[in-house]
Design goal:
The chain is 25% helix and 33% strand. It has 69 residues and is an alpha+beta fold.
Length: 69
């Protein structure tokens, strides 16, 4: 399970995906729920923090996983 903790419109939020590929696919649709500029402050996979992701935004996270899925 992938969990993304982010900030949108000054509110802290979180969203879950079954796997990183599902996250990548969610941003490829015409009107994605998550906006590129949302600030990402933590990502976990199966409860373990992804420490090698050093980006700041959803777009950075997309690019990080685009290369891996």
């Amino acid at each position: 399970m992938m969990k993304i903790y982010y900030k949108a419109d000054y509110d802290k939020k979180e969203i879950e995906f079954e796997k990183p590929g599902d996250f990548v696919g969610s941003l490829l649709v015409d009107d994605p729920e998550l906006q590129d500029g949302y600030e990402v402050f933590k990502v976990t996979i199966d409860g373990k923090e992804v420490t090698d992701f050093t980006g700041k935004t959803m777009l950075d996270l997309f690019n990080y996983y685009w290369k891996r899925v």
